[in-house]
Design goal:
With 343 residues, this protein is α+β, with helices and mostly antiparallel strands. Helix content is 54%, strand content 16%. It folds into two domains: 92 residues, Pleckstrin-homology domain (PH domain)/Phosphotyrosine-binding domain (PTB) (PH-domain like, Roll), CATH 2.30.29.30; 228 residues, no CATH class. The protein is built from 14 helices and eleven strands.
């Protein structure tokens, strides 16, 4: 077993290399070659661990370095430094197909758990930690964007809008944290019958949704559902879950001023994307609880959900869109059955 190693020497000042011999003398590494004669404490030399069969580097405290092949001599140097145990195990894992596969499976499991559980938890923490001013900024900008790209002023009679506004205010009254929440009316052929909640307590209801409802009990169920989204900050959480970098910044600092461009993506989140099953279940539970508290038949809410689904697919031969088949959003039938089961 050789007690020396031939390597290519670089002095750290030029790119020119030269051949040298490395030799260990107790706890000192000697470097000798044409015009080179140096000694370094072994503890101050950084030695690359094995990485497959890649050539390895030694880095010296004065900025010089040496490049050598994958030689057992370097492993003995690492062992003298007390580092060989860890690096040797890593190398054996790398060179073993079975162990590499196991490491890959473990990595995929960790990534899955992070995406499935870690990211939603961080998103919830960030959404509830954001200052009210930041949430108001996102809600206001989102509504402005929607008004520019897909919505028009409501054509509902003023009296009808006032009736529904009073209904909404009665549903949010008595809760200081809901002070300032408001109901907005818009018309939109592209969105159709719909209602959605924006950050900062804004609920938008389209004329199509009002016209689809057969009575105000059904509208109350829809409004209670959207209030459930607001209370649990579902829109913000959904957006943050799909913005990993923003989520990290907001979780650590509670500051969204530097990422106010989030509002630009909110319309797509609200209209194109779908909430998770858990989010929809929580909002449906809020609607059912409100209706029960007011003595309104829960069936009213289930009826408008079913009618909304029929209206949504009316011009599509009852065929769901591919995004909904592949997405995480529960089909309406499942939601209707779940609501009726809580009567």
């Amino acid at each position: 077993m050789s007690d020396s190693l031939t390597a290519v020497w670089y002095d750290g000042r030029t790119s020119r290399g030269g051949e040298v011999t490395l030799r260990l003398d107790v706890e000192t590494l000697e470097v000798r070659g044409p015009g080179v004669e140096r000694r370094y404490p072994l503890a101050e030399v950084r030695i690359d661990p094995r990485l497959g069969r890649v050539r390895r580097n030694l880095r010296f405290p004065d900025g010089a370095s040496a490049e050598a092949g994958d030689d057992p001599f370097l492993d003995r140097l690492l062992a003298r430094q007390g580092r060989e145990l860890v690096s040797g195990r890593v190398h054996r894992w790398e060179m073993s197909p079975g162990r590499s596969l196991a490491a890959l499976v473990a990595t995929l499991c960790i990534v899955f758990c992070l995406v499935r559980y870690g990211v939603p938890l961080l998103a919830e923490k960030a959404a509830f930690a954001l200052p009210a001013a930041s949430e108001e900024l996102i809600g206001r900008h989102t509504l402005q964007l929607l008004d520019r790209v897909g919505m028009q002023p409501s054509a509902l009679p003023q009296g009808r809008r006032q009736e529904l506004t009073r209904l909404f205010r009665s549903m949010t009254a008595g809760r200081p944290e809901r002070q300032g929440w408001r109901l907005e009316f818009r018309a939109s052929k592209s969105i159709g019958a719909n209602a959605f909640a924006l950050p900062s307590g804004i609920v938008v209801m389209t004329d199509g949704m009002v016209q689809l409802a057969q009575n105000d009990d059904e509208i109350a169920g829809v409004l209670a559902h959207e209030i459930g989204h607001l209370v649990r900050r579902h829109a913000l959480r959904h957006l943050l879950q799909n913005s990993a970098t923003v989520l990290l910044v907001a979780s650590l600092t509670g500051d969204i001023a530097s990422v106010s461009s989030l509002a630009a993506t909110m319309p797509a989140v609200l209209i194109g994307a779908k909430y998770s099953r858990d989010f929809e279940r929580e909002a449906d539970t809020a609607a059912v609880d409100y209706l029960k508290h007011k003595g309104i038949p829960v069936r009213r809410y289930a009826e408008i959900l079913a009618r909304l689904d029929a209206d949504h697919y009316r011009d599509r031969n009852a065929a769901p869109r591919l995004g909904e088949l592949l997405g995480n959003h529960p089909v309406m039938l499942e939601r209707v059955k779940s609501v009726l089961a809580r009567q």
